[in-house]
Every structure is written in structure tokens, then in C-alpha cells.
Amino acid sequence: xxxxxxxxxxxxxxxxxxxxxxxxxxxxxxxxxxxxxxxxxxxxxxxxxxxxxxxxxxxxxxxxxxxxxxxxxxxxxxxxxxxxxxxxxxxxxxxxxxxxxxxxxxxxxxxxxxxxxxxxxxxxxxxxxxxxxxxxxxxxxxxxxxxxxxxxxxxxxxxxxxxxxxxxxxxxxxxxxxxxxxxxxxxxxxxxxxxxxxxxxxxxxxxxxxxxxxxxxxxxxxxxxxxxxxxxxxxxxxxxxxxxxxxxxxxxxxxxxxxxxxxxxxxxxxxxxxxxxxxxxxxxxxxxxxxxxxxxxxxxxxxxxxxxxxxxxxxxxxxxxxxxxxxxxxxxxxxxxxxxxxxxxxxxxxxxxxxxxxxxxxxxxxxxxxxxxxxxxxxxxxxxxxxxxxxxxxxxxxxxxxxxxxxxxxxxxxxxxxxxxxxxxxxxxxxxxxxxxx
Length: 438
Known about the structure:
The structure is a single chain. This protein is 36% helix and 13% strand. The chain is of the alpha/beta class and 438 residues long. Helix 5 (135-148) links the parallel strand 2 (127-130) and strand 3. It starts with a helix and ends with a helix.
């Protein structure tokens, strides 16, 4: 097996410890950057990027150009690839596009949890303030608690409680927004100010609010994490994790450190998944905007039905029928989403609309009247697949108690796809009527 020094000495661009550079597309729209940010990596006339499956790459043919590791010059972006555990031309193209779309310095991993594990391993905090959210992240933290004594603190604790617990320099405040499984959102700027005042980092799991819906860096995030399996992949057919670093004076050091540790953790993406990721990012904005619009209409329709709001002064598109009102009121107890976490009669707070100016996340949850209704609803639907995960073009619904033992047993999570929202609302109305016996 090659030594780290040997691998690094000939690694380059694509594979060195230099973060992806910006290019002429940096001032273009998101839609254009998603398609053209990696144009500089084209080596053939293929319109669709080639997939490089090789695990190792040929050294220079000219013996005079071979350099020993101890004499290797600083890494150059133009250096050829060496070994795919560092990275490959395919993963590098994916990271280049991701860096452009996230406005940060991106690295990819085998899964979202692999990315979160890499994050905690590199920064090695003694304390982390974290809320509910995805149970898998808490599983990773349990491992670090066992290994290093990492302590978890409540995310929503007061300043006095944080200070009393010793949260300080080198520690992490980790915010998942929008939140899994409810789709509710948190004020990133507020948490950034509180974290930075103590010398802590703000890390954000933005899986439920991908590029196109929110940019956590503009609200104070130091590191942004994605389970790229969800919206970045978008087709329910690839595993991927992403860490993006704020592009500041610390970015190069942190990117290089994470890059080198990824080599040892062995969590580099496969080339097939990386190629599929590039394919998926081309349509990210189109997909996510449609999914967000669909979700917001569905939530508004359900919320109006729950509150018997069929006044003509409302949005005619989401106006519920008398039958919808009867069905929803007989089956639904609570609707969870960013659009319903604020008072119905008042404008949403400025921080919320500033943080997610293009629409809220495409995931919401319903707490039904009974556990039996929650168990039977997925099977009563035609267009929603009963499956875990989220973010694909197809709509999913999950009786969440099957995969998360911390949630209300009456809760179902809904991941909205790109289908016609009228068809989805009709399917939900029919399914809810069936489980409620209406």
C-alpha cells in the first residue's frame, strides 16, 4: 500500500490538498453554475461527463519527471490524479460543482453520516449543542462520547445554561434546519451569534434546505453538511455526504485537514455515485423549486381544511372542498412545517423569509388522530411510496415510528416529489378519508 507521503506528493487538482478553485462561472446564476461549473475539467468532446472507474493512475513516463515524496513541490491543481482513495477526476468534478452551488469549499463522502463523522473527528469538540433532528447523527455522537467523552448539550438552552456547561472555544453548535422529520426551521443568525460569542463553531445540517432554498453561509454558518443522498442526488439511487466550509481565512487549512483525514477514514465516494451526483446536480434547482412549491401548496391546503378556512379571500388554488374539510378534521391532529410553525394570522418573521427566500423545505409531517391511522395511511395511498429517506423526484410517506423510536407513534413524514400537486392532494384526501372512515 502506498504511503500517505507518496500519494500526496503526486496528487493534484483534483487530488491535492488544494481546495477547488472558482472559475468564470462564479458570477452566473445557480442554474448555469450547476451545468457549467466543471467545464474546465473537460478533456474530450463528450457533452455528458465521462465516468472514470480506475482506482489508480499512471505515473509520468519520463523518468526525469519522477519526484520522490520527500522532494515533492507544493501541490498544483494541474497535477494528474494518482489513486482514487484521494479522489478521482469524477469525484473532483462533483466537488467542483458542489463548491459552486454551496458557496463554500466542498468535500464529498460515502454518506451523510460519514460526513458528520468526519466533521466531529476533525474538529474534535469536547462539547456539542444539538437538538432533536436526525437520529443517525446522535448515533455518531454516541460513538464519539464512548471514544473521547464528548458531551451533548441542549441546543435550545439559554445563554446561562450554555455558559454553566462550559460551551466555549473549539466546541460546536450544530443546527439542523429545516428539521427532520417536521420541516420546521430555526434562526441560523441567532445561533451563529451565540456560538461565535463563545468561540464555538456553527455547523448546519442543511439536508432539508438544499442550495436553491437556503444558503447557511450568509447567516453565519462555518460548516454546512448535507446528506447528498437526498436532494442533491434527487433520484433515490445514490449515497452521498457533503461538507462545505465557509470560504474564509480558515478554509484552506480546514479543507486540507478534512481532505487528509478522509484518506485515512477511507470514506471517499465511489466513481459511479460521483457521476450520478454530477448528473443530479444539473437539475437541482428545477427539482427543488418544484418540490418546495408542491409542499407549500399541500401544507396550505391541509391547514385550511383543518381550520375550515374556505373563504374566497384565500388562495383559490389551495381552497379545500367541504369534503376535504370533513376528511382532514376527522384524521389530522397537527400539521408540522415551517409554514405552520408561525401564527396563521401574522406575516412570517423577517429572519425566516430572509433565510429561505425561495420557499420552505419540501418535507412536512402529520400527526394523525390515532396510531392506527398513521400505520394504515401509507398503504391507502397510490402516488406516495411508503419508504424511508426523502428528496427524490417521487413522493414518499413514512410511518416514522418504523425507523425512529423517538417520535410520536401517530406521526407520518411526507417527502414531496415533482408530481402535480393536485394529484397529490387528491391522493391524500382519498387516503385520509379511507383511514378515517369518512
